[in-house]
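Before relying on records like the one below, remember that each one covers exactly one chain. Contacts with other chains, cofactors or solvent are not represented anywhere in the record.
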Amino acid sequence: MNRPDHLLAVAQREFDTVVRARTVLLLGAGYAAVLFGLVATAGTGGYLPLLLDLLTPAEALVPLLAFAFGYRAVLSDADSGELETIRTYPVSAPAYVGGVFLGRLVGFVPIVVVPMLLAALAVVLGGPAEITVVAAHGTVDAPALYLRFVGLTAGFAVVSLAVAVAVSAVARSARQALALAVVVFVAFVVGFDATIVAALSGGLVDTDSLSTVAALSPNSAYRSLVYALAVGETYARSAPLAAPLPGAVSLLLWLGGSIAVAIRAVWSD
């Protein structure tokens, strides 16, 4: 078999493992329940309010779900001894890591995206509503804005899962994997943003370079992309928006860097 065959074989094996796991169904059901609960509590009447209501929860829920989904992706093979068996076959580290990531990704992204798409039914069934997010002027509200948000969230989910797989490859025990996952999750949700705010307050970062520095965090890069590409049309006349390029580059670097770390660590003794 050639390398693409190796990758697809590992991916199919990983996907089958994910589909059979009851914890995956519980995670997906819990995530969907939280999402629907937020929508019901907020009582949103438009696509733009729905987008804004879900943005901040998504910044925490998507990485949390990703780490729960993937922090033992490689480690479980190592603990069971299957990784040593796989290494006796002509499967390269990139093919193995790529297959594990792809197999988990196929099961993970729908769990993130489908509940968000179903949440839009609250707007469809609730009927049109007048949206005045910015008091200075009326705003637009269209399904395309919400679909952009869902697409960007899917991209954020891909990056978050890649980081989780890297954590799983680096860790040498379940306790270490859990500790690393918690540390990285806290850094994603709180640490990076708190550091940026502290640097801005201390004068280490000026406002001109703030958008670039903020994009170093996956969460803030995702947030800036949502505001620039999904909410930008609404705020264009009231406030300057960050350019989408730094955020896009940041997420791509996090994706590629995480996969590279996992590849480097997985065959390491």
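The mean pLDDT is 81.
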